[in-house]
Design a protein that fits this description.
It is a single chain. The chain is mainly alpha-helical and 102 residues long. The chain contains 4 helices and 2 strands, in the order αααββα.
């Protein structure tokens, strides 16, 4: 916590004897300990590994098949399509609307 304490003293002119530095240091240490030092449950570890394998599998298949994964609209729905098809659709849209013409 020495780096943080020195930063608070140097940049924000907080005196070293201020209780806010001690409280902040204790709160930060407690938060970091709770987030990173407490072991995960078996179910969380299992779920994390399963989701990681699934994500790697999806990424590999998308790259292998030259596909693109895109969000359709603001609704959050995803669509998988061929990259060549996306380029054709984008070019047709630019031609139809006259967008991006200088």
């Amino acid at each position: 916590m020495n780096v943080i304490t020195r930063y608070l003293i140097r940049e924000h002119h907080i005196p070293l004897t201020a209780t806010i530095i001690r409280e902040f240091s204790q709160h930060l240490e407690t938060s970091l300990h709770q987030q990173y030092m407490i072991p995960l449950s078996y179910l969380n570890i299992y779920r994390t590994r399963k989701e990681s394998k699934l994500m790697k599998s999806i990424q590999h298949r998308l790259q292998k098949g030259n596909y693109i994964l895109r969000e359709t609209d603001k609704s959050g729905i995803f669509h998988i399509g061929n990259s060549v098809d996306y380029e054709k659709k984008a070019e047709a849209y630019r031609q139809k609307t006259g967008a991006y013409i200088e």
